[in-house]
Amino acid sequence: MIGGAIMLFLNYFYTDVFGLAPALMGTLLLSVHVLNVVTDPIMGAIADRTQSRWGRFRPWLLWVSVP
Q1: Among candidates 25, 27, 32, which has minimal Cα distance to 9?
Q2: In this predicted model, what pLDDT tens digit does every residue of 12-56 receive, in sequence order?
Q3: How buried is 25 (Cβ within 10 angstroms: 0-12 exposed, 13-18 middle, 19+ buried)?
Q4: Is the pLDDT confidence value at 8 over 90?
């Protein structure tokens, strides 16, 4: 429900406040989701192959959260 509320706000902000065309805004959000479709399985495979003293996933959560 929170994600849906955020998407409603983003739709309003991009079209009315920022001035983007609705088709351009839809293309922008679609491209972000397509990028996630590609990168999420790759990162999952990398995290599954990680062996450290802290486990498989914790190093990625700690190191990537810094930047």
Answers
A1: 25
A2: 999 999 899 999 988 988 999 999 999 999 999 999 999 988 888
A3: middle
A4: no
What is the DSSP track for the chain?
-HHHHHHHHHHHIIIIIS---HHHHHHHHHHHHHHHHHHHHHHHHHHHH---TT-SSHHHHHHHH--
Contact 7/18 with Cβ under 8 angstroms? Answer: no
End-to-end CA distance of the chain: 28
Q: Would the pTM of this model clear 0.85, i.e. be above it?
A: no
Rounded Cα distance between 63 and 66, Å, is: 6
**Under 8 Å between Cβ of 26 and 33:** no
